[in-house]
Amino acid sequence: MTAKSLEQALSWLAGLERFSVRPGLERMEYMMERLGHPERRLKFIHIAGTNGKGSTAAFLQSILRKAGHEVGLFVSPYVVSFHERIQHNGEPIAPEDLLALIERIRPIVEEMKDAACGAPTEFEVVTALALLYFATVSYPDIVVWETGLGGRLDSTNIVHPLACIITNVGFDHMNILGGDLHAIAREKAGIIKNGVPVITGKMSEEALEVIESVARERKASLYREGKEYEAVRIRKGDKEILDFSGTFGIYNRCELGLVGEHQMHNAAVAVMALQVLSNYFALYVEEEHIRTGLREAKWPGRFEKLAENPDVILDGAHNVDGVKALTKTLQDYYPGQKVSLVFSALVDKNYTEMAELLAPLCKQVWVTKTDHPRAAEPEALANAFRTARPDLHIYAITEWQEAWRRALHTVHEQDVLLVAGSLYFISDIRNEWKENRKAGDE
Asked: Which fold has domain 3-296?
């Protein structure tokens, strides 16, 4: 294998309507049939939700690995590299495996151009690649399986899981999922299968009622935060401490590896899911695995501190609910301190309300854009911040590398520099930071 051959394969993959969304499972069903149904050979925990999917997946993976299980992980989008979307025991898919699987699936994708269902999107092919990898290459005991968008018609919904998790329901992707919480919740609840237990995180009564209705229809046992289990946040210095009590056990004073009040809910839903699997499917997980797994869980781009003096924080808050959680965490960990913000968002996000939430906590803001085709223009972002707070120092810079460079050279040692607004942007900044650090070490 050469680097060029993999680069060409990934370029072909990225060319498959990379940023289009074509809901429906017809194309996945076609590919699974042609590939010999790899999805039927695997055990899954399927995760949907507006926010918190990646962090919940991180907690699950960490605990399961501490219990000695071989764990597959499928997430979207990536923060570090494309390979990170498909992992086995925390290690991204190897380049040679990825290339071999792309070459195996490419003829099927090409023939689908003439099929009634049409050619698949990039995300559908990546989903198929993950299933093929887990079923024919890495053979995990269990796969932590994150939806891409929604649930009912998401390509990941081709699987029949051991358990389903719906972390929360908020306003995002409304042009596809619907304009109100009822419609969005109905789409998320589409991952619920007949007789498969469902674990829900903290959410509104309106959204929960929809999920409860679907669970009843499909005779699926339901475990709800605030009802079948409780999560109480106990902060201790710079650590998050969770008291968990559920149907099958109580774990007090659990330290979390991820910070913020919202991570308490993500951790609790993961623990409840594993309790259900342990009690009904004999999945081996002991209390010591839960405690250690929660404490050692890591996930890039979730209030991730890259440096100190000044503190450089990356957070992939990319919608209104995510920014609400971010502002709460900022107030918890940096009470009374104004932050310097580098911000970029996609044009289809409610960046106006995001700016309204962030502006009161900022002393200066650099707004910019990435190469993503849906990236909002810096001047539009700047206007949102100006409207939210006219006295704020705002700098609109087209090139994100220049905005990042200026921010780094402007902040002082005692400052907090926050990067937020889009996971794609977080990925660019994180990779730039790591490359510069690596070059400095050489």
From this structure: UDP-N-acetylmuramoyl-L-alanine:D-glutamate ligase (3.40.1190)
